[in-house]
Amino acid sequence: MQICWIWQKVSSVNERGFQRFLDNVQYKSNGILCYERVFGQGFVSTGGIETTNEFVEKMNLKPGQRVLDVGWGIGGGDFYMSQKYDVHVVGIHLSISFGCIVVFQKQQTSCLCHLAF
């Protein structure tokens, strides 16, 4: 089974305001790295790998399946799912800062992950 979405961009007066807030205030690069030190490698919010493991087990993932992660943070859960369950993960996020960190982390790892961001 495949699910397809049709997206339509809607213009607004302050089109990129929220993204700018995320990148310049809430999630500056050094702030993201501080969150990661608190919550564990690859994570910027509570729960970390323990909660991710508990949640992902309930998904009953099979090798080759595809997962869409909306609001992926810095990809800790995505790396985990790809490595442990051999699934293909696509992650999207509003903040460019997250994207830069995840791309760097993917380049630094030796895992043969199926990740796209």
Automatic annotation (TrEMBL):
It holds the Pfam family CMAS. The keyword Transferase applies. Signal peptide: none annotated. It catalyses: N,N-dimethylethanolamine phosphate + S-adenosyl-L-methionine = phosphocholine + S-adenosyl-L-homocysteine + H(+); N-methylethanolamine phosphate + S-adenosyl-L-methionine = N,N-dimethylethanolamine phosphate + S-adenosyl-L-homocysteine + H(+). Its EC number is 2.1.1.103. InterPro entries: SAM-dependent_MTases_sf. It is an enzyme of class 2 (transferase). GO terms for biological process: methylation. Keywords: Methyltransferase, Transferase. Gene3D superfamilies: Vaccinia Virus protein VP39. One of its GO terms (molecular function) is phosphoethanolamine N-methyltransferase activity. Pathway: Phospholipid metabolism; phosphatidylcholine biosynthesis; Lipid metabolism. PANTHER family: PHOSPHOETHANOLAMINE METHYLTRANSFERASE (PTHR44307), PHOSPHOETHANOLAMINE METHYLTRANSFERASE ISOFORM X1 (PTHR44307:SF2). This is phosphoethanolamine N-methyltransferase.
